[in-house]
Specification:
It is a single chain. The chain is about 50% helix and about 10% strand. The strands form 4 sheets. A 4-stranded mixed β-sheet has the order 1-2-5-8, sandwiched between helices. Strands 3-4 form a two-stranded antiparallel sheet. A hairpin with a 5-residue loop joins strand 3 and strand 4. The longest helix is centred in the middle third of the chain and has 17 residues. The two termini are about 30 Å apart. The relative contact order is 0.15.
């Protein structure tokens, strides 16, 4: 989360919704100097992922910052819930199973999905850092059925989002620099050795537009495709996973689809 008291502006970082890309450009106006970043201990008994704090936690433990979200020009980016769930699973495997994108397989992702579905079915309100990336998007925008974040954009409305940022902060936000941390994967098991060489070189390129151009060049080689694209179709063949995502993230689907309607009306 980025809060600018000078600009009366807040960016709320919903996990797996291009938040790192946005944060990198907004850090110069952060009045909290990076306080809301990373996993940290709040007390001896509580630990939070400060980068991604849902509204119920913010209102209880950080009431002053919650007030600013409600009163300032607050904004967040949302992502298609089906696509985001796959991306979140891949992040979960990376953080808690030690697996890079090149290690993912459809079978491994499906097994992790089964574990996550089982956990969230039995612990629907888990706000621990381990499951922050799998939390409902609406938990970062609303509280008790009331929308707290005042302005929402979809990730495919990046140009409009950039205009909003520029208007409220004066920052010349570069919407074309995304994605700088896209989860690229080798298309074929047999190409992994070659693909990893390109990926190491890619990781050394400075973030922002240079990395975005390199990303596009890597996609053109045919060696890589988006991990989300690669696994989503197969993962959602499983009816249990598909139904879980549709039910568990029902509020996210409704909110996300309403943004398209609002955009069309505008």
């Amino acid at each position: 989360m980025i809060i600018s008291d000078e600009c009366k502006f807040v960016f709320v970082h919903i996990p797996k919704c291009a938040g790192t890309f946005v944060r990198n450009q907004l850090e110069p106006i952060d009045s909290y100097d990076g306080k809301f970043y990373g996993v940290k201990k709040y007390s001896e008994c509580r630990e939070f992922d400060y980068s991604h704090i849902p509204m119920n936690i913010l209102s209880e433990y950080f009431p002053e910052e919650f007030r600013k979200v409600a009163e300032y020009a607050s904004v967040a980016l949302m992502r298609d819930p089906r696509e985001r769930f796959v991306s979140s699973l891949m992040q979960h495997l990376k953080l808690y199973r030690g697996l890079s994108s090149s290690d993912h397989t459809a079978r491994r992702l499906r097994a992790e999905a089964d574990r996550v579905v089982d956990h969230l079915t039995n612990n629907p309100d888990d706000s621990s850092p381990k499951f922050a990336h799998l939390a409902k998007q609406s938990s970062f925008t609303s509280l008790g059925g009331r929308q707290v974040v005042r302005h929402l954009f979809r990730m495919d409305q990046m140009e409009a989002f950039a205009g909003f940022i520029s208007e409220h902060t004066g920052i010349a936000f570069d919407a074309t620099a995304r994605p700088e941390n896209a989860n690229l994967m080798p298309r074929s098991h047999f190409l992994r050795a070659t693909a990893r060489v390109f990926k190491r070189l890619y990781a050394q390129i400075p973030a922002g537009r240079p990395r975005h151009l390199a990303y596009k060049a890597l996609r053109r080689t045919g060696l890589y495709k988006s991990g989300v694209e690669m696994f989503a179709e197969e993962l959602y063949r499983d009816g249990n996973i598909r139904r879980f995502v549709e039910d568990y993230f029902a509020e996210d689907f409704e909110l996300y689809e309403s943004l398209e309607t609002r955009s069309s009306a505008a």
